[in-house]
Design brief:
By secondary structure, this protein is an alpha+beta fold. It is built from 7 helices and 22 strands. It folds into 2 domains: 31-51 and 157-380, Alpha-Beta Complex (phage-related protein like fold), CATH 3.90.1690; 60-137, Elongation Factor Tu (Ef-tu), domain 3 (Beta Barrel).
Length: 389
């Protein structure tokens, strides 16, 4: 009896190849790029662009010195950090934090560091290290208009960055029957995926650099790692108390609806925290409807301070270090930036005129804008669950 191993030549038995392929990441490996593409974007007509940031006026000051340190004195010349006293004017009422001691400003600062205040409601003496909180102002009947106080916006600068990725195939290979896909359409799709992954990693880890040493300038834009300044290092131990303390800080400014984009180890630790505290309104298996999240897998955590939407990030999970990390992001203050007329485009005719083949590439000049770093956070080393003490 002849069996399938009896044919000496493989041409007798060509075998069968399933006309399909499986992707390692069935969901998007670039959630930040995907989400920001669904949000309003900004167009720039210069490769260096700036955004203005306005913050609340300063409302508290730490006393670093009192030149009239006499307990019997009713007026005190107070020193604070350089530049901080410009926001104070005559008539402002200041209260020592945690007490009922109040003072009124009688001489405004001329150097940004020193001003004079007088006891207002109690006969008390301020001390170095006290925190003065601004609680109001008071003026005489029939008085003139008060001194004016202005504040300047701060500026944040970033660059656009040129991204390129190309594919090339010979004329013969283009027409050859191949499995599982036709070569050119598949190569083009893979080229776009590489392009988007590089852009995503720049959003995550990018540093703002302009190199003018070559024939023409070369620039990279700063991403989350460049601009987020608020960082919490869990040092490999995450408890519910730690999380609650950090969530209180994370939701102090900005929206009450934020996202935690993080690696799978961080997701696992959050799940262990929830599993060990059954009363939490948090279940990693209960995901939001993908119609509401542009197809991304998102889990909602309702906290006393706001809603935290947990988004696993495949690229972060590929790293043994970054899989433990996460970024708390307020998407209201994040924008995708593109150079005018230079958004992502496909050029399918990049080969030389006499080339027997085809070459194409994706190109885009893109940027990234993150405003007010206080409303975002970076969490690191979320590698193990720790019970509350």
């Amino acid at each position: 009896m002849q069996d399938t191993s009896d044919w000496s030549s493989p041409d007798y038995r060509p075998k069968n190849y399933m006309e399909m392929a499986f992707k390692l990441w069935p969901t998007s490996p670039t959630p930040l790029t995907y989400l920001t593409s669904k949000l309003p974007s900004r167009t720039t007509d210069d490769p260096e662009y700036k955004i203005f940031e306005y913050r609340l006026p300063q409302m508290s000051w730490e006393i670093t010195g009192d030149s009239n340190d006499d307990p019997a004195a009713t007026q005190h010349t107070i020193t604070v950090a350089a530049g901080e006293a410009y926001g104070l004017k005559v008539g402002d009422i200041l209260e020592v934090e945690g007490t009922a001691q109040q003072y009124i400003v009688i001489t405004a600062s001329s150097d940004g560091a020193n001003f004079v205040m007088q006891e207002w409601n109690l006969t008390t003496h301020p001390a170095t290290g006290d925190i003065l909180n601004w609680v109001g102002s008071a003026y005489e009947e029939g008085s003139l208009s008060p001194e004016s106080v202005t504040r300047q916006a701060s500026l944040v600068t970033n660059y656009t960055q040129i991204f390129k990725d190309a594919v090339e195939v010979t004329g013969t290979a283009e027409q050859t029957r191949m499995r599982p896909f036709k070569p050119w359409p598949q190569m083009k799709a893979e080229c776009l995926e590489r392009f988007m992954i590089k852009h995503e990693k720049q959003v995550l880890r990018g540093q703002k650099v302009e190199d003018t040493s070559g024939t023409h300038p070369k620039r990279t834009f700063g991403g989350l790692e460049e601009f987020i300044t608020e960082t919490k290092d869990f040092n490999g131990s995450v408890s519910l108390n730690d999380l609650e303390d950090q969530l209180q800080i994370a939701f102090k400014y900005g929206s009450k609806d934020k996202a935690l984009v993080c690696g799978n180890t961080a997701v696992k630790i959050l799940n262990r925290v929830a599993r060990n505290h059954a009363a939490l309104n948090f279940d990693m298996t209960d995901r939001m409807n993908k119609d509401q999240t542009f197809g991304l897998a998102v889990t909602e955590w309702v906290t006393p301070f706001g809603i935290l939407r947990v988004i696993p990030h495949n690229l972060m999970s590929e790293s043994d270090v970054y899989t433990q990390d996460g970024y708390v992001l307020d998407f209201k203050y994040i924008e995708r930036v593109k150079m005018r007329g230079r958004d992502i485009k496909w050029n399918g005719s990049a080969e030389e005129n006499d080339r027997d083949g085809k070459k194409g590439y994706y190109q885009g000049e893109l940027g990234f804008s993150l405003a007010l770093p206080e409303v975002h956070q970076k969490w690191t080393e979320m590698s193990a669950f720790a019970p509350d003490a």
